[in-house]
Amino acid sequence: MDNFNNNELVSEFGKNVRRIRKQVGMTQEQLAKKCGYSLKAIGDIELCKSDPKLSTVANIADALNINIAQLLDNRVAIIEDLNNLGSAKVADYISDLRLITKYRKKI
Question: Are 17 and 45 in contact, with CB atoms under 8 Å apart?
Answer without folding.
Answer: yes
